[in-house]
Amino acid sequence: MINRETFVELMSGVCSPVTVVTATTPDGRPHGTTVSSLASLSLDPPLVSFALDRASRLLPHLQPGDRVGVNILGAHQRELASTFARRSGSGSKFDGVSWTLRAGLPYLPESAGWTAGRVERHVGGGDHILLVVGVEEAEPTPAAPLTYARRVFGTHTPLAVAS
């Protein structure tokens, strides 16, 4: 078995998309957190997956059957990624943030992409829970995505073509 530090260092080299996953409580309060584990899971039917820490405050609002929004952040949204990565104190992570409701879910304007769907199931995975989501709505944009690797934010750029 490898040690934790070696595993963390290895995985820090994997470039990840940066998203803010959102939900709304029955009384209309928004909840959200930064997630860097979004992955396409299936084309038919369209499914995505992401993982949340078992201690996540968002997890109780994303049980099977619940609706969920995924804001795929753009390269210009580093500050939002940091805002939603913090544990909220007495206030909401949405305080001072520009957002609207879209499909009944918190939506962050100017994101590089948006998807919404319904949690189909949870799959246990160590200290995290993998959520499988059936995609019901999607909007891609040409905006450069925000990525995270080696503990810093960045974005994707095409490699130069050798001549």
Automatic annotation (TrEMBL):
A GO molecular function annotation here is: FMN binding
For this UniProt record, the keywords arranged alphabetically read as follows: Oxidoreductase
Q: What top-level branch of life does the organism fall under?
A: Bacteria
User: Could you list the residue ranges that cross the membrane?
Assistant: none
List each copy of the Flavin reductase like domain by range: 11-155
InterPro entries, per database record:
Flavin_Rdtase-like_dom, NADH-dep_flavin_reductase, Split_barrel_FMN-bd
Keyword Heme in the entry? The reply is no
Name recorded for this polypeptide: NADH-FMN oxidoreductase RutF, flavin reductase (DIM6/NTAB) family
